[in-house]
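Severity: low
Component: inverse-folding endpoint
Summary: output formatting inconsistent between runs
Steps to reproduce: submit the following structure tokens with default settings.
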């Protein structure tokens, strides 16, 4: 049992997902997002045009860059499409999930 707990602790220590400082500063260009997700840039631009994902750039910028939250959405869209969802159904599911997460965190914020 001790080895199992040690292994779990080791995984937690190595997880970049618990590095909140890193994640809060993470901004990645569309090319890099395409490489790490396996989704073509053209498809990412289409999803942005449809309003499914948003860039982290200032108004008027022509460079598409995405933050951590948008990369999570991109990966979730990809996963849902692979599971057989249509793009519209995936978008609705993600919107509902994001609203639920946001609501939960607002409640937590009020408690602190």
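Observed output (run 2 of 3):
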């Amino acid at each position: 049992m001790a080895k199992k707990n040690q292994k779990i602790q080791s995984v937690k220590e190595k997880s970049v997902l618990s590095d909140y400082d890193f994640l809060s500063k993470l901004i990645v260009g569309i090319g890099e997002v395409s490489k790490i997700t396996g989704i073509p840039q053209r498809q990412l631009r289409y999803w942005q045009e449809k309003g499914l994902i948003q860039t982290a750039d200032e108004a008027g910028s022509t460079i598409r860059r995405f933050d951590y939250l948008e990369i999570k959405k991109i990966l979730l869209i990809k996963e849902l499409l692979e599971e057989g969802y249509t793009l519209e159904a995936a978008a609705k599911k993600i919107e509902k999930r994001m609203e639920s997460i946001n609501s939960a965190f607002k409640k937590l914020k009020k408690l602190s």
